[in-house]
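agent> call fold_tool(seq_1)
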Amino acid sequence: MGATSLAHAGGYVIGGTSGTGTDTGLSNMCLTPNDPTSSSATWSCQSNSASGGLVWVSGLVGTSLTVQGADLAPFIGSQSVAIGTQATSATGASAVAIGAGATANVANGVAMGAGASVGAAGGVALGSGSVANTAAGIAGYTPDNATPGSSTALAATKSTLASASIGNAATGQFRQISGVAAGTADSDAVNVAQLKALNSAVTTLRDVAVTYDSTSKDAITLGGASGTSLTNVKSGALSSTSSDAVNGAQLFATNQNVAGLQTNALQWSSTLGAYDAGYGGTAQKISNVAAGTAATDAANLGQVNAVSASLSDLSDRAVVYDGAVGSSKDTVTFGGASGTTLTNVRAGTLSSASSDAVNGSQLFATNENVALLQANALQWSSSLGAYDASRSGAPQKISNVAAGTAASDAVNLAQLNSLASGVNSLSDRAVLYDGASGDPKQTITLAGTGGTLLTNVQAGAVSASSTDALNGSQLYAVSASIANIFGGGASVAANGTILAPSYLINNAAYNSVGDAFGAVDTQLSTLKGSIANLNADTGSAYVQINSAGPGAQATGAESIAIGSAAQAVAANATAIGQGAVANNAGDVALGAGSSTGAAVQTSSMVVNGTTYAVAGLATSTVSVGAAGAERTITNVAAGQVNASSTDAVNGSQLYATNQALSAAMGSVNTLNQNAVRYDTDSGDQKLNSITLAGGDPNAPVVIRNVATGVAATDAVNVAQMDAGLSQALASATSYTDTRTSAAISTANTYTDTKSRQTLAQANAYTDQKFAMLNSSLEGVRSQANQAAAVGLAAGSLRYDDRPGKLSAAAGAGTWGGEAAFAMGVGYTTQDQRVRMNLSGSTAGGDWGFGGGLSLTLN
């Protein structure tokens, strides 16, 4: 202690106003309590800063200081504190500078952190590099649309002290303030949670707020998808200068005036393109007509365009859409207890598509025009029963009358003159009924030298009672239909004529139906003679009819094989047709290429893991096709139900399937009775057919109200079918005739070449069999043709396989002179897991029915 002091470890050096203090120990303190600022004072104090020593000269604190009187002035202010290296300064009065290079050179400034700096009196710089230069009294940000209350609150919190800084915006140094509690007073800092809450509230208000379209505040577009209703609108002023919005009551009053005017005034009709003089639903005359004055502008009320509100106080002053956030913006209810006046409403656009609001001046102008129209427009006179065109008690004329177009339009003088001229020339260009005036209108003779072409003829109705004219497209369609029925390559030429078909019968070509039938008749006559010769001849116990192809083989006992390469290989088997094969006892193979399989004794079936019994055990098989060349058959035994089966199923199988379906998804009987579904194969793939069945399984199902078919795949109605059925039946026998011709030729060849000795051994058998064949051949042929026609009809059925669709279909077919008709219904469930159909077909007075069901199991 003293002017020259020395302290060792743990000691203190305390000096006076001058002298030297040396602290050589560890963690010691060297200080002077006086202000060594006189020019004569010298104070030197050394402390081991690395060991925690401290040098404190009054107003100056450091770790190693050597100061000379006046040298302290730039670093230390009155009542100031500086902690740091020699570069640290706190020259301002009552200033604090802590940290290397910290500077607080203004009164009451606080700089804490390396390089922190305060440039405004009373400022606070916290953290290294922070700069506080903003002086007191700087007003904060005030929004342009702030309410008076908000502006007052902002002014009350205007800064009265210099800023506190935690960074340096000029050099891009910024810090976050963490752990900030939610502010409560107006001058409290707010945290992010409060800002998020505010943003959410603003977002919510923005969704329902009504705002100006732009900063010019000249338009407001309401956001309702179908427009927005403004309710509780106070009645606006109605004058030529008014810009107030009008409410419904005001518009209703105007509409009442307009409605009264519309009832009695002559109005313009946009549909007629003229003034409509109709009254009471009938055409009227115009009496005492003088020149009238019409308004050049039409008033049209659209969307109200002038709702103005401040977004700065949305909770109390904003006009918002009715309804919750996110709901449709189609109504706005104003909050005035006695309604709300909308002023400064800009004049809205007046057009047929406008939804702008109109202001009072626009409605006033409309009312002025209505009043003018009431004074000068043509008015309906109930006493005259017509529009009264008189003015001041005298009749007047109507000028600038547009040419009338409708039957009830007024005509002008030009039209009357034109009519007179047209009447004079009518005799040359008119198309008139034959005979004198008053004669029956039964004939019209067109006067063209080479005939007269009628063009633009609308398609007439085609029915038994129709008297409509037909156009070229309809005649072409009929020709095309006939050509399709003829087959044989028949087609329609460009001039509408039908190009001849070509039928191949017994290797000879014929180009007309008559010639083809003549050839068939010749072959039938030859066959008849051959059969007669065969009856008188001796024969074998086996009958083979040979042709140019491989011979027929009837190797089974009591079997019959007719046709090239036909085979009846089992007892009592019958194979008729080229390549037909009857493989099992009692089997019947009908038609070229038909092949029978073994009869399957089906007594039950499994659906979705459940076994169901079925009826109708098969003893043999009747086949009219083969794999890849199937034909439809009816009255069959229970067929196979598997992935490759093409057998038909009978009613007992469908009944068992219905039982399983009823257990899985409820009663199916009603569904089967009412549903119309596509037929499907065993793989649940839709077939191009629909089978219909009504309440009586033995009666056909009628599809009524069938429109006339147009496209090639359209259903036809009875009128269409009757019109072309005769040609279809006449020409559709060509295929059967061809096959019969082949059979005749084969029979002739066989008869000529068969051994007499073999025939003699079986003469009695042959006589018996051919007597039966002679009497039943036509019946077999007819039934085979009926079966083929049924197959074509059923194959034409088409169902709608979309989910939940119940559809009906009908089809017709002809074969070998026989005709058949089929109809059906199909249904697909909503999940497409179940598809079912019922169908019925008839030919030759017999009916057959079928049904199908498919289940998708995964």
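agent> call fold_tool(seq_2)
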Amino acid sequence: MSETILPNTSTLENNTVISFNLETKNNIRYVGICIYNIESNEFSLCEYIENEHFTVLESILIQCRPTSFLFLSSNDLIDDKRIKMILNLCEIKLEELSKDYFQSASIENDLNKLLKENNIKNYISFLDLLIACKSMCSIIKYLSLLNDDSAINKCTLKNYNINEYVKLDKAAIIALNIFSNISRDKKNTNTMTLYDLLNKCKTKIGERKLLQWVMHPIRDVKKINDRLDIVEILKEDSVTRSMIQSDYLRKVCDLQYIIKKFKLFTNKKDDDDKRIVKNKNCCTIQDLVKLYDCIIVSKKIYYCLNDYKGRHRKTLDNNFLNPLKNIIISFDSFLKLIELTIDLEEVENNNYLISRKFDENLEKLANEKDHIYNLIKEHKIEVESDINFLKGNKKNSTKEDIKLVECNTNVFLFRAVKKDINYIQQRKKVYFQVRMNKSEILFHTNKLKDLCRKYENILYDYNIAQKELANKAIQVACSYWEQVVKLSEIISEIDVLCSFAFVSSSSISSYVRPIVEEGGKILQMKNSRHPLLESNFLLMNNFIPNDVYMNKDDKRLNIITGPNMGGKSTYIRQIALICLMAQLGCFVPCSYAKLPIFSQIMCRVGSSDIQLKGISTFFSEMIEISAIIKNADENTLVIIDELGRGTSTYEGFGISWSIANYILNHIKCFCLFATHFHEMSNLEEESSGAINNHVAAKIDNEKKKISFLYEIKQGYADKSYGVHVAQIAKLPKNVIDKAFEKSKELESVENRHYFKTKLKLKNKENDHINTYNQYFLHLKNIFRAHDEKQFISNVKENYSTLKEILNKI
């Protein structure tokens, strides 16, 4: 079974549809994409040129997680197969549509009906995106939006900038453990992911927002620093953060669920609005109360944050306080509506009712209902007194001998314990038995039946009045759904940033604010740690921090050599994760971090053998490397781990060398290249852009044992120490001894061959030097002259010799 690459989000709903249109001209793939968010009624359009691996599409699918993918088959079977394979990996439902869905002749009329008035004037510029507009037409027809009241004049249109976010491919997501993986989770439920580490959110909307952010690391330096400013505020003021998280955010309901209900209600027909359908998606008074509570909590969050007077006050005002204040003000009428119409005292008893004071008729019916109910309770006391009289006025306990219980068929019945059955049967003409259970008897009287009949009639009228008034209140409340969307956006972001601050401050080792630079040429970290491994309680106290320093000019390719299990893979992964966390706007596990803005993170890490699909380990490696070579740019972070293991040593080394050399001299991006080929270290001598580092290990030659130090040091390792690792794995002693013997033998043969070759080259070089020295002496004698005439004479006499020497030189 193939691995899925989307996060396990069973608890996180997503309402996004993507339509994809591919047109190929002169072997160039022009793609138009439309992304429609059903919740916010937002269309996002983009056009771009795709590559043969469809890596941009893959990144968009991973980031947007659509529920459906609308697709018009192209004329290229290979492209179609590749697209379907990506959809299969992402577990996205494919809807293959006909060309009719992608006809865009009516696009202008459709947009005039769908877009908000203030958005209509802006749509003309989008009509130039011809391929993307065809995709938008397919969504409009597929979802029948022109017949959907919740979409008419409520949609917005914007550009989806694929360069706004860091591109993450499936290899990066799996290699860096960014999300939970459904198929992998079944095997190992204890796998920590970046999402798990950062998810200290207190609300459902916060969890969804965090997932959205983790899938969309940003490239805008200002936005990153704005997030970092807020995290810094909340990290430094732990009291405020704790109050917001524990006292306020915990009380925020799932606002997206409320929005969904509000939108469904506004889309109902008038005749449907007069009745309440028992449905989990039907809006109720309880939903209005939940929203009311959220708004009250939002006010408290506002006042709590408003107390801050520090250096980041402007950032706090622009991003949260001012927008939150405006939204709260826009809910003033809603708050008054709830306080006027709903009985908030009854809410404390979990009864969600329209207040009787709101309507005269409702108050009259409620009072009459209460009056009849009081008569029923008085009659119950009469019956209880009569039975006590029959018992000789003996009451065994302070408990009620007769209880009033609700019944579906009779409204109310009396209930007595079974031992009192004899007293009830003494008055068969007054007390009528209905049912006898194991330990009780249920009965009624004619008077109770009469009162229940009256109570049932008045209750019916009361419920009808409640429903009619509730529907009117809900209808008014549902008109606020757009404000609820804005409130949900702000509260969810506050929740995520509180979560970032909590993670940064609660770690046993320090987290620091990263310095991010657009177009930066330096990647530097001091005392960096792997955030996921460090969070493991077994490693908290002994995780070894390491530094990294790279720059674009002369240290952009970092070759890491050293023993297996020494920490090479951990080191390169932790650097990539820290870069990703920085572009999320989170503090990072370092004592100092200075980073450039990366456009994408690409990984070739680990063995992803998918032989069930007929693809071997080595071929899979080559596919991933091909995607990196063709799509990486100078702003990409590339991490490569143990490339070339699936073929012979010499071929593997040759491929690794050529790929590293290409990345170094052609792509010129930051690259961390972990390898067991220690000969790769020679790249440092050939180019100023490469540097060597190795993971340190302590070798006991007598005992033939290795101790891993997990420290990254300058220079290269001349051995991989694979046999030592095999010894740790407790292979049989005779196998280990033979391995040591054979490896030493091969090393000596290789060294003899190496030095012999070197010696030959040296001898040849010396021969050339001697020859050139002789030529030089000949030339010196030829050109030795006292005057011009003698010089010309010497040249004429030695012309043939001079010509021969110059030709050889």
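agent> summarizing second result for user.
The mean pLDDT is 84. The CA atoms of residues 291 and 318 lie 25 Å apart.
agent> awaiting next instruction.
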